[in-house]
Amino acid sequence: MSKTLGVGIIGAGNISWAYLKLAPLFNNIEVKAVADIDMDVAKSRAAEFGVKAQTVNELLNNGDIDIVVNLTVPAVHYKVSKQILDAGKHVYSEKPLTLSYKDALALQKYAAKKKLRVGAAPDTFLGARTSSRGKRSTMARSARSSPAPATSWGREWRCGIPIRTSSSCRAAARCSTWGLTTSPISSTSWGR
Amino acid sequence: MLDMGPYYITNLINLVGPVKRVAALAGTGRKERVINSQPSNPRNGEKLKVKTPTTYHALLEFAQGACITVSLSWDVWAHKHQNMELYGVTGAMYVPDPNFFGGDVMVAGSDQKVEAMAAWDHPFGKANWGPGNRLTDPIWANYRCAGLADMADAIIRKRLPRCDISMVAHVVEVMTAVMEAGVARKFVTLKSTCKRPAPLGPDEARALMK
C-alpha cells in the first residue's frame, strides 16, 4: 500500500471542479479541504465533493495537509504560493506559476531554503502521446539535432474574467478558467 | 501568452529541451474585447479595453540547435494549422493539442505519407472528458492531477518531480522573454535553463493510479 499525502485547495473557482473530480483517480493524494476568499463558494464546492471547507488560514494550518494546490487568479499566484511555503507546505500551482521570471526565481530559492517542493501545471505533457519514452524520443530526436524548423500554433477566443478578485491580496481569489492572464493585466505587471 | 503559452512552451521543452534565445513580434488585434466565456458570469457582455499584446509571433532557438516558430494569438477565430509540427531530418511529426493528455501522434517519413503512430497502451490516453466538464460522451483525455500525484510520489521517494519549479521557472522566463522581445522587436538571450523532465511511461503512470 503506497503512502498518501493530504492535499488542500485554495481557490474554489472553475478549475477546482476538475481537480476535485480527477484527484480520486490517483492513489497517493487525497483532497482534505477547500478554501476560497468567498466562504460560500468554498462551502458549496466542498459539499459537492464531500470535503471540508476551510478559511485560507485554517487550511494553511491544517496538519492533515502536505501539499496545497494554488488555484487562485494569476495576479496573486506568487503571493499565495509564498504564503503556502511559509506555512511549511509544498506548493502545486496552476499555470502560470508567476507573472515574472524574477518571482519564479525568488519562489524557487525560497522553496529550496525551506526544503519544500514547488510544482506547477500544465501536466498535460505527461500524457500518453508525448511522455512515452519510445515515442517521445523518436519524435524529438531529429528536431533536436538539427536547426530544422518546427511550428506551433496556439489560439484562444474566449474572453473570461474572474468573477471575484481579492481586494486585500491576503487571501486567494476565484479564478475563471480563461481569466485575467490576457487582457486585464497591464503591460507592466509581467516581465523577467 | 501566459494563459495558453504554458501548454505549448512546456510541451516543446519536454520534447526538445531548454531554450537559449527568443525573438518575437507582438501585436494587438482588437482595441476592445467583450467578456463571453460564461453566460452565467455576472459581467458577461461587458466590454474591456485591451492594454496588452494579444498576438505573438515568436522564434525559439533551443539549446540543442532546433529553431521553432511559435505563434500564440487571441485574435484568431479559427486556423487550419496543426497544434504542433516538428520537422526533422528523417521525417515530420504532428503532435496533438497540448491542452489535453491524449490524441494521435501523426508522422510522415521521406515518402511524405502522413500516418498515425501506433498508440501506446497508456492510462492517460483514454478519453474520459466531454465538452462543458461533462464526463459523458468523452472526447478528450484529461488527467489533470497527474503532475500533482507525480509530485506527491517525488516527495515520498525524495526525487525531482516532473513538473518541478526548476523547469517551470524556465517556462516562465521563455514566455516573459517572448513578451519582452515582441514589444521591443528584438532578440532576448535567456538567463535560465533546465533539464528535460523524465518521461512518464505507461507503467509509471499506472503505478500512480488507483
Can you give a write-up of this model?
With 192 residues, chain A is of the alpha/beta class. About 15% of the residues of chain A have low confidence. Chain A has a domain of 119 residues: NAD(P)-binding Rossmann-like Domain (Rossmann fold, 3-Layer(aba) Sandwich). By secondary structure, chain B is an alpha+beta fold. Chain B has a domain of 137 residues: Dihydrodipicolinate Reductase, domain 2 (2-Layer Sandwich). Helix content of chain B is 24%, strand content 22%. Chain B contains 4 helices and 10 strands; from the N terminus they run αβββββββββααβα. In chain B, the strands form 3 sheets. Chain B has a 4-stranded antiparallel beta sheet, covered by helices on one side. In chain B, strands 6-7-8-9 form a 4-stranded antiparallel beta sheet, with no helix packed on it. A two-stranded antiparallel sheet of chain B has the order 2-3. In chain B, α1 packs across α3. The model of chain B has no long low-confidence stretch (mean pLDDT 91). β7 of chain A pairs parallel with β5 of chain B.
CATH topology of the domain at 5-118 and 169-191 in chain B: Dihydrodipicolinate Reductase, domain 2
Uncertain parts of chain A: 162-189
Fraction of helical residues of chain A = 25-40%
So what's the CATH class of the domain at 5-123 in chain A?
A: Alpha Beta
CA radius of gyration of chain B is 19 Å
- Please list the strands of the largest sheet of chain A in the order they lie side by side: 3-2-1-4-5-6
Name the helix and strand elements of chain A from N-terminus to C-terminus, one letter apiece. Answer: EHEHEHEHEHEHE
Q: Report the oligomer.
A: heterodimer
Which class best fits the helix and strand makeup of chain B?
alpha+beta
Q: Taking Cα atoms only, what radius of gyration of chain A do you get, to the nearest Å?
A: 18 Å
Spatial arrangement of strands, main beta sheet of chain B: 5-4-1-10
